[in-house]
């Protein structure tokens, strides 16, 4: 997937620079280092799905930060983990829990003990037995080790103990009732279960261990057999996978430095699947021969983060953020200065909607909107009045001065240098901020540089985005105090260094509530706190735009809603269910056209247990799959 979503970092979609510069798409379509490369199945990077054995997809634009699932948060890595590491459960199209490692599970009457029955007779890819002990060891390590908890620590924060009484039984006891525990370990966006016999030797060097020796020992629909940083990952099918073997023998995830190159490769039949093209590319693909297009419901937000005061968990200030942003009046004025409707119309070409609540409209059960008297409508006059009343006087150059420091309001606006959407939005922001006396300087940075600055607090404003599934726990959790970094820089998975005691109290409460309506009320209160805090200013929610080779079926899961949009997609099911389509099936190449039959829904048996689960799905999103 070319989509650029991830958890803590800001992977972004790829820009169109090569096409703009007139570089031939043929030179870049195969991706860096892949042209002419021969793989184990005898195919080469230039051949597409016609070979019938190898499925080729565009890897998420974030790439892979590390193959260590305890510390990784780029979507390229998450998609790979979903294919090569097992999880306790999976989900069906409706977002309900379904069997995976766990054949069944039950919840005690006091709602404090979950018992999972683990499938018997499974083996890791190196032949060693896969048992409940592997799951218990993985979860306990995340619970007790700050480094191991970097990516997923918030998901086990309520755990009291995890044990494996025998090879097929896993018992999780919680401190407080937890309504969504059967969703904390799901493919791609949940906790991957790793082989204890491999990872116990790396607990001392976990922070630096990259896990790049192939084949990577795991258990899933795929085995990672080749990996080249910044270029590609090659996976071989697990023909004995308990949920059914993949229909392709091999899967190649290719990294494209330019989204236009991936689009060109798809048109040329050298690529089979892209999720996350922009509005312009989507229009061109809708009319392309041999290409099918579709849109999935928007399940994320895109917006602006403001550094209101970076700090560690002990309250130690860190970073170089402008102290003026600690003033809620200034942050409110910035929110009022943004014309979200214009961004939807001009940047998204209308393919999205203005964002208000923190959680996206794809999940209406968590829908929240501010009251009319709280709504931050585009109103530069009101923003100017706020700043005037607060003593931010304009200098001779029109730039206001911070009354506390007597320094002009010069703010850095960090964007991704490889993201055309960041660039488009930032140009509007600079103009709008200038109109209220703020000088914003755009700072294009590589993803690695921007991510490094994020954790250190070396920024003022950053473009950002996240996606989530039906359960909001993870996405809400990144705004909690518990995700701030330790003083030594470890353990942090914060979004914008937001930390609020009232918010944290509600966060701890929400997952203990089993009544959906009551839980939604608490989640709404949390969104209200975030909205009024203006550390994360939501701009818009966009649809996910998808394109695929018409010779491949099964890549898009679920069925369309009343608006013609498919549910949020998961690479786990898309790649597992993908199959060569009959040549006679044909395709109109249009969204919802005669080739719609090539998109096949996934049906999975659901285990019904006490405690009404909801999905824990989170990904930090980039421009492609968010906007």
Automatic annotation (TrEMBL):
Entry-linked Gene3D superfamilies: Dipeptide-binding Protein, Domain 3, Periplasmic binding protein-like II
Pfam families: SBP_bac_5
Cleaved signal peptide residues: 1-35
Residues annotated as transmembrane: 596-617
Keywords: Membrane, Signal, Transmembrane, Transmembrane helix, Transport
Residues annotated as domain Solute-binding protein family: 99-474
InterPro entries: Peptide/Ni-bd (IPR030678), SBP_5 (IPR039424), SBP_5_dom (IPR000914)
Superkingdom, taxonomy of origin: Bacteria
Location of the protein in the cell: Cell envelope
Family the entry assigns: Belongs to the bacterial solute-binding protein 5 family.
Protein name per its UniProtKB record: ABC transporter substrate-binding protein
Source organism: Catenulispora yoronensis
């Amino acid at each position: 997937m070319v989509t650029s979503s991830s958890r803590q970092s800001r992977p972004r979609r790829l820009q169109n620079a090569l096409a703009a510069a007139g570089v031939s798409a043929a030179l870049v379509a195969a991706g860096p280092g892949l042209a002419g490369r021969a793989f184990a199945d005898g195919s080469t990077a230039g051949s597409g799905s016609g070979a019938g054995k190898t499925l080729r997809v565009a890897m998420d634009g974030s790439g892979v930060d590390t193959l260590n699932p305890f510390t990784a948060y780029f979507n390229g890595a998450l998609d790979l983990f979903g294919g090569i590491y097992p999880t306790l459960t999976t989900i069906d199209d409706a977002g309900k829990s379904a069997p995976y490692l766990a054949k069944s599970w039950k919840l005690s009457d006091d709602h404090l003990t979950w018992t999972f029955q683990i499938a018997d007779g499974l083996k890791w890819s190196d032949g060693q037995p896969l048992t409940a002990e592997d799951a218990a060891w993985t979860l306990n390590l995340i619970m007790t080790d700050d480094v191991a908890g970097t990516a997923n620590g918030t998901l086990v924060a309520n755990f009291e103990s995890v044990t494996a009484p025998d090879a097929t039984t896993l018992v999780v006891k919680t401190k407080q009732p937890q309504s969504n525990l059967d969703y904390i370990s799901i493919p791609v966006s949940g906790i991957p279960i790793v082989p204890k016999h491999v990872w116990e030797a790396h607990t001392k060097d976990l922070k630096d261990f990259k896990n790049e020796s192939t084949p990577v020992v795991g258990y899933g629909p795929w085995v990672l057999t080749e990996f080249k940083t910044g270029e590609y990952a090659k996976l071989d099918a697990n023909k004995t996978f308990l949920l059914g073997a993949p229909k392709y023998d091999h899967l190649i995830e290719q990294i494209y430095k330019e989204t236009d190159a991936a689009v060109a490769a798809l048109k040329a039949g050298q690529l089979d699947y892209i999720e996350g093209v922009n509005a312009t590319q989507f229009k061109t693909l809708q009319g392309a021969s041999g290409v099918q297009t579709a849109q999935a419901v928007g399940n994320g937000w895109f917006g602006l983060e403001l550094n209101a005061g970076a700090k560690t968990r002990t309250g130690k200030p860190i970073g170089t953020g402008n102290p003026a942003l600690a003033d809620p009046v200034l942050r409110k004025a910035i929110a009022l200065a943004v014309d979200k409707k214009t961004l939807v119309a001009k940047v998204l070409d209308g393919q999205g909607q203005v964002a208000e609540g923190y959680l996206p409209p794809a999940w209406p059960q968590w829908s929240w909107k501010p009251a009319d008297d709280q709504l931050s409508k585009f109103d530069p006059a009101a923003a100017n009045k706020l700043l005037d009343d607060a003593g931010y006087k304009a200098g001779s150059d029109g730039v206001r001065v911070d009354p506390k420091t007597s320094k002009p309001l010069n703010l850095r606006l960090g964007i991704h240098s490889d993201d055309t959407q960041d660039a488009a939005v930032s140009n509007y922001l600079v103009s709008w901020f200038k109109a209220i006396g703020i000088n914003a300087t755009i700072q294009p940075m590589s993803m690695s540089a921007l991510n490094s600055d994020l954790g250190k607090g070396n920024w003022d404003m950053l473009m950002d985005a996240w996606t989530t599934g039906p359960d909001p726990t993870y996405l809400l959790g990144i705004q909690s105090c518990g995700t701030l970094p330790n003083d030594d820089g470890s353990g942090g998975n914060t979004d914008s260094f937001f930390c609020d005691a009232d918010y944290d109290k509600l966060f701890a409460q929400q997952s203990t509530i089993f009544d959906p309506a009551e839980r939604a009320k608490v989640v709404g209160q949390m969104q209200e706190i975030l909205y009024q805090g203006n550390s994360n200013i939501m701009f818009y929610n966009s649809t996910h735009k998808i394109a695929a080779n018409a010779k491949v079926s099964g890549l898009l899961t679920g069925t369309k809603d009343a608006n013609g949009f498919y549910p949020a997609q998961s690479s786990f099911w898309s790649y597992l269910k993908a199959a060569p389509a009959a040549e006679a099936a044909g395709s109109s190449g249009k969204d919802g056209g005669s080739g719609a039959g090539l998109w096949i829904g996934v049906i999975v048996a659901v285990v019904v247990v006490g405690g009404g689960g909801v999905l824990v799905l989170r990904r930090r999103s980039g421009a492609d799959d968010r906007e």
